[in-house]
C-alpha cells in the first residue's frame, strides 16, 4: 500500500493532517513512514491529479474522501460530527485507510 498527503503551500492544515494520517496508520497497525507528502503548486497539476483541495488523503492513488467538487488549489473541508472542518475525524480516516467496503 502507498499513502500520500497532498497539500498546497501555506495550507494551515498540512502539519495537523500529516500527524492525523500517521495516527490513523498507527491505529490500523501500519507504518506511518509509508506516507509521502506532495505539495501541489499549479492548477494544471491539481487538475491532472484530480486534487479537490488541501489537505487530501490518498491511498494507492485513490482519494480516501471522494468529492464531486471541482479541482483546484484551494482549502478542503470535511464533514465531521460537529460540522465542517479542515480535517476529517480520526475514525473516518481510519475507515478510509482500511479501504472500500471495510467495516468500521
UniProtKB/TrEMBL annotation:
Q: Which UniProt keywords apply?
A: Plasmid
Q: Which domain of life is it from?
A: Bacteria
State the protein's name.
Alkylmercury lyase
Which species is this UniProt entry from? Pseudarthrobacter phenanthrenivorans (strain DSM 18606 / JCM 16027 / LMG 23796 / Sphe3)
Upper classification of the source organism reads: Bacteria, Bacillati, Actinomycetota, Actinomycetes, Micrococcales
Amino acid at each position: 500500500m502507498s499513502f500520500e498527503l497532498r497539500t498546497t503551500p501555506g495550507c494551515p492544515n498540512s502539519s495537523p493532517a500529516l500527524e492525523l494520517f500517521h495516527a490513523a496508520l498507527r491505529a490500523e497497525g501500519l507504518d506511518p513512514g509509508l506516507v509521502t507528502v506532495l505539495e501541489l503548486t499549479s492548477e494544471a497539476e491539481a487538475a491532472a491529479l484530480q486534487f479537490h483541495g488541501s489537505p487530501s488523503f490518498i491511498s494507492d492513488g485513490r482519494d480516501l474522501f471522494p468529492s464531486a467538487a471541482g479541482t483546484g488549489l484551494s482549502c478542503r473541508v470535511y464533514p465531521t460530527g460537529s460540522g465542517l472542518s479542515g480535517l476529517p475525524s480520526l475514525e473516518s480516516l481510519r475507515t478510509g485507510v482500511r479501504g472500500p467496503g471495510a467495516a468500521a
